[in-house]
Specification:
The chain has helices spanning about 45-50, 60-75, 80-95, 200-205, 205-225, 230-245; strands spanning about 10-25, 30-45, 100-110, 110-115, 120-125, 130-140, 145-155, 180-190, 250-260, 260-265, 280-285, 290-295. The protein is α+β, with helices and mostly antiparallel strands and about 300 residues long. It has an 8-stranded antiparallel β-sheet with strand order 1-2-3-6-7-8-9-12. Strands 4-5 form a two-stranded antiparallel ribbon. It has a two-stranded antiparallel ribbon with strand order 10-11. A hairpin with a 2-residue loop joins strand 4 (about 110-115) and strand 5. Helix 5 (about 205-225) runs antiparallel to helix 6 (about 230-245). The protein binds uric acid. Uric acid binds near residues 163, 174, 231 and 292.
């Protein structure tokens, strides 16, 4: 049968590779731990593995998993941006027919314990489900493109958030509010200007941790201090400030669920006042939730042309 189909895109590899690396300072006895979940998907001249069952082009996903462990043993895993670049570059440097590697590194929190008022040398706690994420695409054609981010940082403020002036029509039931609870799980990322190769990433190595700290600090400070007109407006201010603080970043993205807390009318019970300025007991909603996203770039918007 003449073929009427072809592989228009393909990638494969190992996902959810869990790795823990310890660093033991011999002089001080202080340990540091890094726990990561790694994904590594390859692209290249691999179509025949799909179309003909020809496995001669397949680097087994099991070998990709082994390579992740060996790369973690032989290289620093901090900052994760450098680790991701080194890991991805290995595949295009080692296999001529592999043209790109897509690496994702999720770093989980293990924060040093404070015991009897002192930082403990080898005990850690999981202080929240927040992760530090890196996605890197390492390709022959485009060099190394890295996006760093924060995910799962859950925050709430009990005032300093309003939402009014929105479209009111025959579909609208939501009352305007000048004071509401605002809560979200922060998913933010910042895309770096492309790097030519691993050497260029090494030269930028001191920029990654401060950028993550800045982005996290800006997110928390803006969230706390902004007299929020909407999730949209608050997230834009955060993005703008990250672009200003980190010159090598070209794009900032936020994706924020609006986790609603409904007021509860309790007036049916002995006339209890629990709405408006008397609201104290709220009902947290699991779903549905708002979902507000934006991407913010440097400079001025391109002209969008006429909509006429
Ligand atoms: O900050 C908000 N943005 C919205 O777009 C929106 N829509 C809504 O119902 N509540 C909110 N809150």
């Amino acid at each position: 049968m003449a073929s009427t189909a072809y592989v228009s895109a393909a990638r494969y590899g190992k996902d959810n590779v869990r790795v823990l690396k310890t660093d033991r300072d011999a002089a001080t006895g202080v340990h540091t731990v890094t726990e990561m979940t790694v994904s590594c998907l390859l692209e290249g001249d691999i179509d025949v593995s799909y179309t003909k069952g020809d496995n001669s082009v397949v680097v087994a996903t099991d070998s990709i998993k082994n390579t992740i462990f060996i790369t973690a043993k032989q290289n620093p895993v901090n900052p994760p941006e450098l680790f991701a670049a080194i890991l991805g570059a290995h595949f295009i440097d080692t296999y001529k027919h592999i043209h790109a590697a897509n690496v994702k590194v999720i770093t989980h929190r293990w924060t040093r314990m404070t015991i009897r008022g002192k930082p403990h040398p080898h005990s850690f706690l999981r202080d929240g489900e927040e992760t530090r994420n890196v996605e890197a695409r390492i390709s022959r054609k485009d060099g190394i493109v890295i996006t760093s981010g924060i995910e799962g940082l859950t925050v709430l403020k009990s005032t300093g958030s309003a939402f009014h002036g929105f479209v009111r029509d025959e579909y609208t039931t939501l009352p305007e509010t000048w004071d509401r609870i605002l809560s979200t799980d922060v998913d933010a990322n910042w895309k770096w200007k492309p790097f030519a190769d691993v050497k260029a990433v090494r030269e930028a190595v001191d920029k990654f941790n401060p950028a993550w700290e800045e982005a996290r600090e800006i997110t928390l400070t803006r969230f706390a201090e902004d007299e929020s007109a909407s999730v949209q407006n608050t997230m834009y201010k955060m993005s703008e400030q990250i672009l200003a603080a980190v010159p090598d970043v070209e794009l900032v993205n936020y994706s924020l669920p609006n986790k609603h807390f409904f007021e509860l009318d309790l007036s049916w019970h002995k006339g209890i006042k629990n709405t408006g300025k008397d609201a104290e007991v709220y009902v947290p909603q699991s779903n549905p939730n708002g979902l507000i996203k934006c991407e913010v770039a440097r400079g001025s918007p391109p002209s969008r042309g006429s909509h006429l």
